User: Which sequence fits this backbone?
């Protein structure tokens, strides 16, 4: 932690200025940071930050964080499935400037978590001051900070890819869509009805299944003939889709070209299922296979 903190301070001298209403372009290597200073003294509404990856096809494996911190440069680390970051660092929190000391100079950081990458992550960062709390736009990571005590209102569907409703700065996605900006297609699976899946290297495909009552077993099977796919299933979390690091915690049983997830004593509800084709020097193939769901009821 100390080394990361000192590294952040050392890089502080290299930050660029980011103005409200402007867009900054940059690139960052795996494990490194890009820093920006931001003056928000003229913002009387909501501060809204967006980070867009400019090379999604070549950086599909890159996992990033967009950080905001008053007075000092922020840092962040991942330990397993947990995030550890500098004090007073804003990730996805809503902060009232009139009650918290966040109105001084702010530092913005774009961080690419350490992992194998072929090229630097190219991105753009946008900062804006809005009268109402904004919702995410497609294909970016957003962090909003509430700088007043104004009540947020429904901003309509425009910011949520036309596939959801913006409520208090978060997209509530329609059925069949997911992601922070409802930008991802999420297909429904039906027990006993296998479907064919094709996933390019570094890409995801998302699905869901509804369990109408408590059941003994919920089994998800993926049998593939090419690529290097990974299978993940988790309870529904309000339209969120899996992050890359969650694959490390996948508990699928893998044998040859067959992955199986088995959940026992499952309560009624929706479960999200994702297939990710890992991109690596040894895998440049599209993952192709059959995905199926089976339910065993209590006798």
Assistant:
């Amino acid at each position: 932690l100390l080394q990361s903190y000192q590294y952040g301070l050392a890089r502080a001298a290299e930050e660029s200025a980011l103005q409200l209403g402007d867009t900054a372009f940059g690139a960052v290597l795996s494990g490194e940071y890009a820093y920006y200073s931001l003056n928000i003294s003229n913002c009387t509404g909501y501060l809204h930050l967006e980070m867009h990856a400019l090379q999604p096809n070549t950086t599909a494996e890159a996992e990033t964080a967009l950080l905001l911190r008053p007075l000092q440069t922020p840092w962040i680390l991942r330990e397993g499935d947990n995030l550890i970051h500098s004090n007073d660092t804003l990730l996805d929190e809503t902060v009232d400037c009139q009650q918290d000391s966040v109105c001084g100079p702010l530092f913005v950081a774009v961080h690419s978590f350490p992992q194998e990458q072929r090229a630097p992550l190219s991105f753009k960062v946008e900062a804006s001051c809005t009268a109402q709390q904004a919702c995410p736009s497609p294909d970016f990571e957003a962090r909003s900070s509430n700088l007043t005590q104004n009540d947020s209102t429904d901003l309509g569907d425009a910011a949520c890819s036309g596939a959801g409703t913006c409520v208090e700065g978060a997209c509530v996605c329609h059925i069949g869509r997911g992601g922070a900006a409802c930008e991802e297609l999420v297909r429904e699976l039906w027990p006993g009805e296998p479907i064919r899946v094709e996933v390019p290297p570094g890409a995801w495909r998302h699905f869901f299944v509804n369990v109408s009552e408590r059941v003994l077993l919920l089994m998800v099977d993926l049998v593939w003939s090419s690529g290097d796919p990974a299978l993940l299933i988790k309870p529904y979390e309000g339209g969120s889709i899996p992050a890359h690091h969650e694959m490390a915690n996948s508990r699928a049983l893998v044998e040859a070209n067959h992955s199986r997830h088995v959940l026992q004593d499952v309560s009624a509800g929706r479960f999200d299922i994702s297939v990710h084709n890992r991109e690596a020097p040894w895998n440049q193939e599209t993952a192709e296979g059959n995905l199926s769901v089976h339910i065993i009821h209590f006798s």
Q: What stands out?
A: The first helix runs from residue 2 to 11. The two ends are 53 Å apart (CA to CA). Helices lie at 2-11.
